[in-house]
Amino acid sequence: MTTASPHRRQNHCHPVVHVLVAMLLLLGGNAYAGAALATDPTDDPSPPPASEHHPMPPDSPDPDQRTEPLPHESPDGPVPPTSHTPGEHATMRADRIPPQDYAADAVARVEVVAHVDVAVHWDTMRQYHFKSLVDTTAGGTGVFVNPSGGLVTSAEAVELNHERVTVYAVNQAWNRAAGVPLPKNPYERMRVRDDPKLDAAVNSCYQPNSPKAECAVFITPEVRVHPYTAAEKPKALKAVVMSTSGGVAVLSVAAPGKTATVALAADPQADKTWTSVGWPTTPTATARPPTMQGRYDRQGAVSDQDIDKLRKHLGAGMSGSVLVDDRGAVTGMLSPADRSVDILRPGQITEALAKSGMQAERGPGDSSMANGLALYAKHEYRHAAPWLHSAADDTGQGAMAVRYHKAAHDSTGKSNDMSDEADAHTGHDASGGSTNWALIGPLIGLTVLAVAGGVLFVLKRRRQGPTDETDTEGPPPPPADPTAPTATHVLGPAPGKRPPPTMTPPSEPENHERRAGDRPESHQEDPDRPAARGTYCGNCGALLSPGDRFCFACGTAFHGP
Length: 561
Known about the structure:
Strand order of the largest sheet: 2-4-5-8-7-6
Distance between the termini: 25 Å
Order of helices and strands: EHHEEEEHHEEEEEHEEEHHHHHHEHEE
Shape: extended
Number of strands: 16
Helix content: 25-40%
């Protein structure tokens, strides 16, 4: 047995490293090619949804190119799936998604409440706290324009009627403190005609934030937003008014996650259709926002006749309600002012957002919703279901996304599902014959990890120093010196009975082969003699034991620690 040199061990590792590198390159190339194939939109009409922006499919229906009138609102839910006869893919026409369905999940109810504290000084001091008094004359509708909670509404929708709230709270406080009878109208001021002193004390309280000797009233307003979600008991979200300019109020809503948003279209065009969307009451999972349809006139405005209809139809939700085009993009916002109604243009909304330091953005849920609705309209329910599921997840369970997903899921695989026909038409292998890289990918990852572990193991063994190998091709011993003592006088076992070498501790990376050359100056070897090679003495060629560090003289070996 001989000990192989480090140089020779390195030559043994080269072929292994080459093979491993080749395997890595081969697997990486196959994975890249498979991923490119799986994400090719020409092969797969419905790529899996992800939390990124997704473009609309190039063959999605374009409502602007259709001339038929808008369908009536379906109170039972999404556009019902249409049955078809297999093989009629070429003649099957896409359904028309109602415009409000594109935008409904981003439309919310805006509510203004007040927390009122009243202190009454009559005989004794009494304090009363009225929490969350709703101002029914304020509030309206708002739309999310930023998935992080940016919402816009009309300025009137967030203006608290301080006088109305104050009268209500003061009447309640004096009724409890002194038994003053409440008026029939709780928002009408009290009059105590048989007690002038009490009457004066009561009427001095109707000035908010102006303490008097008899009483003091303090009001803290709060804006709440009720989104349109599929939750059975959705929570109201607190909002802060960032700015109010040009009739537009910009709110920052404390949303727990991402929200659905609406797109801001260009200014309304003449003779284009619009659909109003608003919430006069708090949305519920089973409710649908009231809508009304009309057309812009030749000047791009809404007629007075339609304004009157909107006022009656939307009621308390008119302020901040939006007018959307056929794809759900906002073309105007309703802003009541006295007896008239202004139509705020998208440009005015953009300017108000800029002044508040906010900008309109779309979220990943909006792209998923658009893709899902496009596939749903083409009756490809199996393809649409994952997109709509992703839209619901990315928008906090938007009610419309959940509703359409359920309809698509229930129709998947049935006779009215045209996903198989679409796959056949586009050449997509729906049977699963194509490579499933979603399953192969993890296997490739495990293979790469195993290969990397093997490479690290080989490199670690190389760092641990030489070991004995049963190799007859080791370096030959140096020629014997006739003047040197015989090998029988060398301290240590005979070459044929050499014990197995020991591992060098990790704390001392140098092995005994490297130390053999570190000799003290007083024992320098003869320069005419051959240099030490491996574990052989450079003076006489005798074999050194594993613990030997230097050979001081022929026949005498130094045992290292």
